[in-house]
From TrEMBL:
Taxonomic path: Bacteria, Bacillati, Actinomycetota, Actinomycetes, Pseudonocardiales
Keyword check for Transferase: yes
Pfam short name (any one): CoA_trans
Keywords: Transferase
Annotated protein name in UniProt: CoA transferase subunit A
Annotated source species: Amycolatopsis cynarae
Family membership noted in the UniProt record: Belongs to the 3-oxoacid CoA-transferase subunit A family.
Length: 234
């Protein structure tokens, strides 16, 4: 049976609920599952724990969920460019669990691989280590980090086939493959959905990780910070 659904609303129908943990692919606005995020925003579910590298920017991407006050906790690498995220964190309206970027990636991969926890030297002796068990290996102190298993994972791919095999494009790959692994239910949106199958050598996320698939709507890709150099005369 094809995993393809007619639209993002149908793909998430009867899946969203208050208080759930949602892992979301992307880095800033690059490679984010924008259609799926918008459906979460429209649904009105609240008390969410969002696991993502960051929370987009004001008014775009995961910033929409912050504007709607749907988020109770964020597990992320940094507050980034989102002023509302920073303000809600400072005001105590949103709980934030900071995770070093590599640690966050490994926590997602571990959760998807059935690994409950792992030791890492990253974060030892910093506020990241507060309240976490440590162990000494070969004279070095290591910090115990838990794998992440999300109730729902949302990812964006460039190309997919109807069985949910995914291929990402350049830097838009970022956290998407790891997020796809860690969800109890994983929903993917793809810019191109093939009638046939992806070449096995092109598959970056096997369809076994993907429960539902939707064709992404065409849209202008937003850029967080557009920087240009002054033109030099020849």
């Amino acid at each position: 049976m094809s995993k393809l659904r007619p639209d993002a609303r149908e793909a998430l129908r009867e899946t969203l609920r208050d208080g759930m943990t949602i892992a979301v692919g992307g880095f800033g606005l690059c490679g984010i599952p924008a259609d799926l995020i918008e459906v979460v925003a429209e649904s009105g579910v609240t008390g969410l724990t969002v696991v993502s590298n960051n929370m987009g920017v004001d008014g775009k991407g995961l910033g929409l969920l912050l504007e709607n006050q749907q988020v109770a906790k964020v597990v992320a690498s940094y507050v980034g460019e989102n002023k509302l995220f920073a303000q809600q964190y400072l005001d105590g309206d949103v709980e934030v669990e900071f995770a070093p970027q590599g640690t966050l990636a490994e926590r997602l991969r571990a959760g998807g691989s059935g690994i409950a926890a792992f030791y890492t030297r990253t974060g030892v002796g910093t506020p990241v280590a507060e309240g976490k068990p440590t162990e000494v290996f070969d004279g070095q102190t290591y910090l115990l980090e838990r794998g992440i298993v999300a109730d729902l994972a949302l990812v964006h791919a460039h190309t997919a086939d109807r069985e949910g095999n995914l291929r990402y494009r350049y830097t838009a790959r970022n956290f998407n493959p790891l997020v796809a692994m860690c969800g109890r239910v994983t929903v993917a949106e793809a810019e191109h959905v093939l009638d046939g199958f992806l070449d096995p050598d092109d598959v970056m996320t096997p369809g076994i990780f993907v429960n539902r698939l939707v064709a992404a709507r065409p849209r202008v890709k937003d850029i967080e910070q557009r920087t240009v150099r002054a033109r030099q005369e020849a």
